[in-house]
Each structure stands twice: as structure tokens, then as C-alpha cells.
Amino acid sequence: MANFHRLGLILMTSCAGAALSACDGATSVASPGPGTIVVNPPATPTPTPTPTPTPTPAITVAQFASTSGQSVAATAITAQEQYDIVNGGSNNNLSGTNPLNGVIPQGGATTATAGDPTTLNPSGTSFFVAASFLGAINGSGDTSFQNWTCNSGSANFGGGGANCVAIPNVGTPAAAAGSCPAGTTDDGVVSAVRLCRLPSVISTNLTLPKIAGLVYRFRGQTEVGVDVGTTGAAPGGTAVTLTIEAGVVLAADSSEASNDLILVNRGSKIHAVGSVSSPIVFTAQQNLVANGVSDASQGLWGGIILLGRAPTAVCRSGTGPNDAGGTSTTCENPIEGVTGRFYGGAVQNDSSGEMQYVQIRYTGIAISEGNELQGLTLGGVGNGTTLDHIQSHNSADDGVEVFGGTANFRYMVMTGWDDDGFDIDNGWRGLAQFIIAAQKPGGATADSFSTEIDSNGAEDLLPRTWGRYANFTFIQNSTSTNPPAAIRLRGGADMNFMNGIVKSPAGVACVNFIANEVDAADRTTIRAANSAKQDNGPPVFTSVYFACQGR
What we know:
By secondary structure, the protein is mostly beta strands.
């Protein structure tokens, strides 16, 4: 603006001597006569040059890729190899800067060339939809993640969504005595709401309607149905459906010390379908009173577990093994966090029901090292299951962890997680579009990632872990325990990433590829395609904008 101001002064000064020039477009000045005072127009000052901004240096290979976690020196994947794989993709920016305003893309992330996600659809399918932008959100006018989510210090989605610490919309006054639906038990009034207790085993179909002033409470290990086994014919198995209506609030019982969780057994289903304005909320009882939880609260209950009859690559002793087609009818594996509950089978399109417009708040319990409860845990869940518009908030472990199966995901939000945002392993073969993983600012565990993809160290078990991510936003925030990267891809997994934004803080790389085989010539994470081992080759990155190391 300063240069325009100077130009204005020059023009006014030039026009001040009207006898010398009419300043009306005349192109000549009359010669001065005798006695005329000659006034020379002031010289035009030289404009101050605008400094050329110092360009941000290109990221170094060592900053972009981490070699942390390599346990076998002979098969270690170097930072240069990782860099070259990503750089060898199409339209990737490895030296991006400042790509987000909150969760909204900005700057170079909005002008980058996007890929066509529909090209990722496996033959004969149409899961991925066209989206000509990077990240999960198409600018500030995109309301896809508003209202059904809750906002927090990890991510604010705007709109009319409540803060996650706010009491869910239960309604007042407390529902009257006798309001509890059949199949539940009146647990009295606590915090001005009527509590209706779920049975520990739901052995018949049960519907939970939305009733103003009423919350459904569950205590300990609450199970839906009884396991029907890998084929649906296990003796004593019972398949039932738990239906939860839009706007219902369910709360884990804080009055006793057991690990509260909801587990849907193989063959049974959960039908939890909320709406944009009336999401279903699973939370802790502490969240039912003002200031009962904070932005740092987590680990107040166990979470939700869905178990299905789709294939798993990891089979417990005495079952399996499985093959590339996942056809074993004996292969099954125990799920983390509980005892004696199994997942797996040969039903690719198995259905565990529907979960849509759902919030899962303040979960995650570590039973022991490597044996944890997440916000949402899936074991052998099939692609007949509908999973979209789900938020897992403030899990003390993973936001979502997927063990095997063929489930697909849309509009998934993981906020405030402690370990990993979206964790997949054990031969999961699926698709995911519109994903946001926003880590809490501090206090995360060591080896914490926005997404962790692996085979649990079993590099060549079948089916091989295989996935496609499109339109994802990964926000790695914490440096408190120096997590090595935002994306970890570890042996026995094939991945394709398209239209993503990846942001990590200073000291944290963007990618961390690991292979832990003992044969230096056979590094499954990055080796060439090998159909005999169901291996598609190194990971593929298309139109991903990386802003690593706090850039």
C-alpha cells in the first residue's frame, strides 16, 4: 500500500502547478516567457523494492523419513529408499509447509493436483467416490464433518457440534420411573437422568429408543449375542441384533471398577444409526455432569468391540492356516482386551450391522502390554458391515484398530488418541475414504502414529494386509515421547495412498517403513510384486501433501 500512497502524492504535486500543465491529458508544456519562474516537477522517488521472501529449504531425506524401529539391520529400509518410493509417486509434495488451518486445507494443499479416487476401486466395486481435493475436507464450505462430531483441543470441526466435554443432549427432566424399555432394568436417577441398565448378555433382539431424560447404562463386559463360530454353527451360539435409535446416549458405569465395554459377538449385529443432528453417543458416566470430564480425560471405559466371520491371517494355535483367498473355515484368533472371544471365518461379506453418526468418547484401557481396549476394535469384520460417520475421541490407546477382515470405512474421525489413530493389521483387506486422525497435543505414548499398518511381525501370512486410503488428513501433534513418524508401514502390507495431507511437528518425520525379515533380499514392505505371495509391490503415493518436521 505504501507504493500506491507515494504515487498519489506525486500526481497531486505534479498537478499543483496548473500553469505548467493542465493535467488533463495534455502532452506538451509551453515554453516559459521572460520573468517566468520555472518550477521543475519533483523527481519520482525510487520505490523501495519488496524483499524477496527467503524460500523454505527443501526437506532433507533424514527429516522426511524415519528409520526408527528397524530390528534387523540386514533388512533395514534406509531413509533414502523411503524417500525415493514416495517421491516416485505422482503429484506428491514432500517439502510442503503450513497445509492446514485447524482441519481446513490452506495454501499449497489447496492448489495441488488431486488424483481420481475412483481409480482405486477394485474390479466390480464402486466404493470410492470422485473427490478432486486433497485431505478429508474440501475447504471451509464443506460441512461433511460438522454437527455429528464433537469439538475438542485436538480438532474443531465448526458448525453446531457440541464440545466433547459437554454433557450429551439427554434432555430434562429425568424420565419418569417405569420408562425403561423391556429388556433393560431401572437403575434409578443419577445426575438428573434416569438410568436404564443393559443386561450383561443381550440374548434376544433389543431396541433402545430415544427417551428424553434417559440414558442407557452398561456395566462390565456387556455382550451382544453368543459366538456362533467361524461358520455360524457353533453349539450354543445365539445371533441377535441390538438396535439403538438416533440421539440415544449410552454411558459406562462409573460406580464400580470393572472394565466396561460393549462386545458384539460373531453372528450378531449392532444397528446404531444416528443422524447429523442426532448422533448416538457412547461415553462415560462422568460425562453426564458439568465439568465431569476435561479435554485431557481418557481411559474411563473400555470401548466397543465388533467381531465377525471374515478372514484373518493370524490363526490361534490349532486352527488355520489361512490362504490368499481367506477360505479357511477353521482359522480364528482371540481379540485383544478380553478373554476367550474370537474372530475370523471365511465369510468375506459378513455383516456385523451398521454404525453411522456415532461418537465414542473417553475410552481405552491397557490390560497388559500389547493387550489393550481401543475406542473401536474390529476383529474379522466383513464388508457387509456399514461403518461411516464415526468419531472415536480421546482413547487412551488407539482410536480405531482393525484386526483382519474386509470392512470398509467412510467419514472416520479419530481425535485425541494416545497410541495410534487408525491401526490395521492381521490381514485386513479394505478401503477407506474421508479419514481424519488428529492426535492430542501432548502426552502420547511412544511409537505413536496417525496410522500404523502392519502384519504383527508375520511378514508373509495370508491373506496379506492390503488397503487403499483416499482423502485423508493426518495431524500428528505430540512430540512428548518423540513418535518417529505420522505413517508407519511395517512388513507384510500393501498400501495405496491418494489425496492426503500429512502434518507432523518438529522432530517428527512423515513416514517410517520397516521390514523385519532376516533375508536381506526379501524385504516384504518394499520388495517387487510377487503374486505367489499375494504381494503387490512397494506402497504407492499419489497426490499427497507432506508437511513434516513442523514445516
